[in-house]
Amino acid sequence: MQMADDPGKRLAAATAAERLTGGSDHVMGRAQAGARWLLVEQWSQQFISLLAFVLIARVLAVEDVGVFALAAVFATFGRLFIEAGLGVALIQRRDVTSGHSGTVFWLSLGISVVLAMAGVAVAVPLGAYLGEPQLTPVLQALSCLFVMQALGVVPWWLLRRRLAFRALAIRTLVAVGAGATAGVALAYSGFGVWSLVGQQFVGALISVALLWRVTDWRVSLRPDLGYLRDMLRFGLPALGARVMEFLGRWLDNVFVGIFLGSHALGIYATGFRLFEGGHTVLTAAVPKAALPVFARLQEDQATMRIAFLKLSRLSSAVLIPTFVGLAVIAEDVIPLLLGQRWAASGQIVSVLLLVGSALLLSELTEAALLGSGAATAAFRLRLLATLANALAIGLAIAVWGTILAVAAAYVLRSYVMLPVVLAFLSRQVGVPVYPLIVDLVRIVLASIGMVLSMVTIRVILGDVPQWMTLVAQGASGVVTAVVLTKVLLPTTLVDLSSVGRRVLRGHSPVDSLSSYVRG
């Protein structure tokens, strides 16, 4: 199981994109090439991590996955504070001196040592309080990673500032691949939960070593604390945004682990991990590519409103039916991949996939808010979503006390928040709500027709081998979705083909989408 990437990545990419939109053609060319490497990095990383997780989960006990997931929550939270948001400030500042980078390095290293000692100490009473004795050594081991991760903070951000996305992508793929190989080897050698810990250690070690290998930066032995106050003005709000992102992503794991135990968390975390990996592969490129497009159009509000409607229609027409179709077959696919003892995780995946349309619209709205300069509004929207998520999950555990109820609460919270998302979108960006809803209704109707065709195929085929039924359902779903989309949204397939051809001809996703929305 791969611990979540640094939540600052998206903020860093956003900051860089917004700064570069007014830059020279040479810099823009590097940024566009970098965007392609970012996609290669993210998709490849997710594929390798998911493949490793599937292989490891086939031999690990459910409780082992649950204990690691709970330890990873606390370790990931501590990791947020290693650089105190100052890494993003290295990208945001126009001029960065050795004093700036040295200050961030020594502060990060000092914080990491304190966090490591705190994690080792807290792990003992925490494991005893939760009745999970195995949690203590696992959390202590993961806490020791803080120091290693701190060593890579400044090189990582400086390479990102220099748009060295190719070097970063290669570094990530080598590190993730080595960690995945080590994790699988340890799992099949009988090391249980320690195979997941070993995966993290090997990946982190190689990642840091490669970062220092590809950068020419060397740390100053004397930090200049005079720079600290200036950098904190940007770093602390960035840290606040990352904390909100952490709570939105991990709060359900915390609640499930504390109140329902490691076995329930193992089932839930596995389902959420598979959902998250699929969601990242399918949708991550959309808001990342949309953000610089919106940033370019922020001075032309009329065009920006049209751009949002077009991007929403195009991405939703592809992704919503995909999510819904996967939800139909997930309960059958997951046991085939992981084994029958993970069948309940298939139910979790099926429920979570239904959040697709609400999540996509929320991510596009956040990109539009950031692109138009309304960062405060984006933070408020995220804060409201986080509070609503905590309330929904708390109620699900208190009233029903099952992981399926937690997954359902996550989905329902996203749809309950939709009117709030639309209100922010209309007020801050000026996007008209009515045509947006009309497009979504048509796409949902196409998705419903697709589901009916997939269910019909399953009934007709009856007792044929399961893999044949799944293939037939997938083929039927794709054909039905394409036909209904052509009927309900006549120009969408043509637009999608046009954007796809531009990307295949070597244009960046940003340029391809910019050309589409201005067309």
Describe the fold and architecture.
With 519 residues, the chain is mainly alpha-helical. It has a domain at 1-285. 84% of the residues lie in helices and 0% in strands. It has helices at residues 8-20, 25-57, 62-80, 86-92, 98-130, 135-151, 153-161, 165-188, 193-214, 228-260, 262-283, 285-296, 301-338, 343-352, 356-371, 375-399, 403-416, 418-429, 433-461, 466-488, 492-504, 509-518. The two termini are 43 Å apart. The relative contact order is 0.10. Mean pLDDT is 85; it is low at 4-28.
Which short descriptors sum up this protein?
about 525 residues, mainly alpha, 22 helices
- Got a strand count? 0
Q: What general outline do the C-alpha atoms trace?
A: globular
**Low-confidence residue ranges:** 4-28
Specify the helix fraction band: over 70%
Strand content range = under 5%
For the sheet with most strands, the description reads: none
Helix and strand pattern? HHHHHHHHHHHHHHHHHHHHHH
Mean pLDDT: 85
Number of helices: 22
Distance between termini?
43 Å
Oligomer designation: single chain
Gyration radius (Cα, Å) is: 23 Å
Structural class: mainly alpha
